[in-house]
From TrEMBL:
It holds the Pfam family Acyl-CoA_dh_1. InterPro entries: Acyl-CoA_Oxase/DH_mid-dom_sf, AcylCo_DH-like_C, AcylCo_DH/oxidase_C, AcylCoA_DH/ox_N_sf, AcylCoA_DH/oxidase_NM_dom_sf. This is Acyl-CoA dehydrogenase/oxidase C-terminal domain-containing protein. Keywords: FAD, Flavoprotein. The keyword Flavoprotein applies.
Amino acid sequence: MSQVLFNPKSCDFAQFDPETRRLLRAVVDWFEARGKRRLLQDDKEQVWPADFLDFVKRERLFATFLTPAAEADGDPNKRWDTGRNAMLSQIFGFYGMTYWYVWQVTILGLGPIWQSGNAEAKKKAAAQLDSGEIFAFGLSEKEHGADVYSTDMIVDPQPDGGYSATGAKHYIGNGNLASMVSVFGRRSDKPIIDSAKALTGKPTEADYEGYLFFVADSQHPVYKLHRNVVNSQIYVAAFELDNYPVAEADILHRGEDAFHAAMNTVNVGKFNLGFGAIGACEHSFYEAIDHAENRILFGHKVTEFPQVRSLIADSYARIVAMKLYSERAIDYMRSASPQDRRYLLFNAIEKMSVTRQGQRVIEDLADVIAARGFENDMYFPVAMTAMFGLPRLEGTVHVNMALSLKFMANYMFHPADAGLAALQSIPGAAVAPTGAARAVTGALSWSSRKLAPRLGTVVKPLGAEFASATYAPVPTRRDTADDEFLFRQGPSSGLGRIRFEDWRPVFEGFRDVPNVAVFLEQVLALQGLLAAAAPTAAQQKDVDFLFALGELFTAVPYAQLILEQARIDGTDKDVLDQIFDVFVRTFSANAVTLHNKPTATSAQERRALDLVRRPVVDERRFARVLDEARSLAGVYEMNA
């Protein structure tokens, strides 16, 4: 990160190639020339962003950023580059979710197309992008929501070939004007999967046979656009197909491949949510700090009140943490392969944790900016609305938490701490005094880390375990490569086979940062809890209980990637200490929540309290971070 917070008026986008720099600069210049007054007026009057789409068409912006190299017809600037896509998502979030959303659902609409073996559909999509068209993702339905097994989009085979589609879709962004809508449905002559049974047992390949993805045109006469289901500039459509003709050339995926295409599309698209949140928080922070630093109450600047000082320092730390995590997550996304699927965990956390951190930032800044944040000349109300929506898009927080928990055992124990699981076989470990539990946990963890690699040379299963978690170092990835793997992710199953490298060396490398050291103590205590008092069979079906546990687990990879990026960037250690001051407090609060769960066992109650710590307080460090945050007052204001 060349600067801590994104400043449109000084950012040079130096990390990117010349054409990417030019386009990103053109986007910023378009928004700044258009001005804040027009931006807010259009938001208030719910004006469809036609002028924005004219700009996109004129600059061939979406065509350049969203056309994979394989479909670029030799254009050297066209590629699917997660690094620059993330930057553009951040810029759109900075200026308003209307612009981010049109871009986001275009990405989702393209996902099933670019994953398809349908060369004709891909060629058509590339041409439509060049013409400035937008796309849509027709998956959700009003009655079924995320239960795609139960889709009521019925596709009837026709006697003379082809199909006829009839059914309704709901919550479909860009569904008013999309030239190609990727629609999920099922054949009328094939069985439907019982979604309740699908949760407890995997359906067979034959069970999936009738499901498919096809493309539809929103301007076709039998594509019936009913309404916009939200009060906003964006268009979230409810539409219906009434005997819509579907040719063989319109079919993108059949059978289980259609499900994989849906899940893998969301894997690509949901990554952008965190970057939209970052942009919204950065713009909001500039407004909040400008107001608070220049407002005098009772003879003092608002930024001098103790509660405001804490809110500002924590908000600033949270935004920096969001950016550090997200920058590093880009590298894992771009370096992903069939052999390295760690991105699936980091991607879920990008969508879930970064957006929720953004929501917390906006809530805290609202207490700083107070009534000024509701005035009609402020960007802040736009951000407030957006930040309550982002965590709930592309799979709810609970859905992404459930996905993240699938990785917990492998991340926390395999292979580095395979021996620590022995703790659960030690009599009394679950209810031992805190000091004794820590000692046993530490000893087992140390021995497993030191001895297991040696055993791996002679014990074949253990050797294979270590080999499966050995990866080449993940470099910083802002090169001009095409991220073609994202459109050949393959089956969305097999998550239990994904292994992670030992996360502790990263934390140990920052032990000189006081609150990183405290946080590491908490995480090691979490290992002890998971080993000695693992969730029962009943708890593994209890989403409420698992969510509390997931809050603790997902904090660990979130912190890991922050530290990895901090090492790359040379992040100021005072700022890092403030970030982990926040983490220690949050981790302790989540441990108490787990302790208080009515379904927690007595062993879990006891071990949960082992996670509670007090952060290291350093007034001078706090003051330095606060001064850095306050220095951003007056740095940026959007052109009028």
